[in-house]
Amino acid sequence: MRTIFSTADVPAAQRFDYWQDVVASQFRRRKVMAFDRRNFYADIQVGALGDLGLVSCRASPLITSPGAGSDEFLLVLPSSPVHLDFARHSFATNRSDAYLIDAREPHLVAHSREPIDRTLLRIPSKLLGGCISANVTNRPLPLRGDVALLVAFVRDIVRAEASGLSPTMAWQLPQLVRDLIVAAIGQLTGVTPRLEAASRFETLKLRVAIDSQLTNPNANPASIAAAAGLSERHANRLLAQEEGTSIHRLLTERRLLAARTALSDPLQAYRRIADIARAFGFLNRTHFAVVFRNRFGLTPGEYRSRTFASRITT
User: Fold this and answer.
1) pTM, entire model
2) What is the average per-residue pLDDT within 255-277?
3) Cα→Cα distances 27→20, 44, 302, Å
């Protein structure tokens, strides 16, 4: 995500006028009103996932109304309440709601009486292939199943640092999100989704299930497969075909990477190695030392010592 707009370096008296000029030219807003111009602030960050757009916005309380609509849908994930008025209905959202806006809607007015903090995923309408229906857009979404998975995944993408992604994941991520979108819309409309990579989507759900269980010492292949909605046999076959691994090996790998990160974190230097091992499901320190050395070529203690020593010398 990169910042494309901020009032941080603009004189206070000019911030709102500056904001109006930007949103009118770049975000097609017909009307913008601030509840408090004197203390106005705003910043916008943007990113891209292939042909999908990410927008993160923070601002003072506002009333906004769009101008000419664009041919896209907006998955909105607010962290602050907002009231939305349409031509024939209205609704209010809380901090945990998500909703899908048809950006072609000309009559939308959004009232935010609390500071704004929201993330938007911009989805070209062609991606949905005409399967979208009026009873899905411009209203809160039910946060369950594939919809909840999509919302959680988009929030994690925004929080994550792009530099932390492997080249393989950075390449696959746009298609994974596209598959999640299609599956979520399919759930809402009752249409069986046609995924471009159905097995890759199932692998994504497995990875999400695994990452959610890194600190659970009782996690096992059967419980992880069940959390992803798959049988253990099918899940292991899928991982073997897609990535040459298994649930057990992938869980161990993810736990080792998380433990290595903790061992190299100066803010966690006070923690004992045994405590870090237990935090990521390794209840036996000897076993942890063996698998850590097999994976990284050093024992946990050696890795921590060398990491901190290199920081001191540089």
Assistant:
1) 0.60
2) 89
3) 10, 11, 52
